[in-house]
Hints:
With about 280 residues, the chain is an alpha+beta fold. About 40% of the residues lie in helices and about 25% in strands. The protein has a 5-stranded mixed beta sheet. It has a 5-stranded mixed beta sheet with strand order 6-7-8-9-10. The longest helix is centred in the C-terminal third of the chain and has 19 residues, at about 195-215.
Amino acid sequence: MRKNFILFAAWAFIAVMFTSCSKISQARLYQAIEEANKECPIETGIGTFDRIDYDGDIISFVYTIDNDLISVDKLKVKRNEAKQVFSNNLSKGTVRALLQEIVKAKAALRLDITDARSAAHMDIDFTPEELQGILQRPAGNDYELTLQSETMLTNLMTPTEIDFVTVLDSVSLSKTEFTYHYTYDDEQLTADKITATTVGQLKEDHLAGFIQMMRTPAGESLMNCLKACCETDRKLHHIYKGANGGKPFDYSFSPQELDDAIRKSKAVIDPATLPALNR
């Protein structure tokens, strides 16, 4: 069930693409893209940002997905919703400066995405007019946009099998919670096994998984999402229901618990080896 934290990485590749090109200006657009390409490929946690192509009219961000929870085929089924997710990320503060330069150059933007596992491919295009419309929106709060994007993109991928017992059905966002909704196989996980102790252990293991992932190169996007929960004063809630009406259960992480997890993940010494820090 801990596998679900991979989904925190789902939205991150679009931000990585644009952030990598933040030095682009109207006068030196082509040269700046060449410089940005020297840093490619860039690992994003769900694949790689391979390069930027520029032919004068279209700027293409070439990306490869390589992840067992995210696929191009799923994105294709809900193409319009996927485009909305990426449009939402174009509103982020770190991206708007680049977007302004693209609009000044009267160029279009293309996301060129290939699935390494199935070889499926798709393009998501933004016309200069669409980019101009995005620029006219209020900038918004980056933390809110992070959680909104994560919610939308994760829901494009659901239902998603987490393990042989658990399926992630959806994610929801309210003013006070960022919530994952699961269905579990109540023939495998019977009511007598769902005790306060086992739920508490599941929560502890889940949090330990967060900390360990944030200590890896692929964990930056997870950290950003947890930080967004902290900064917007939201708890991270996990709700489980039985597939056949079995005993429901849930657990949540407060903003303080999430902040503590982020702090531990940044420790020079792995906090998992220091029991006193985990009490």
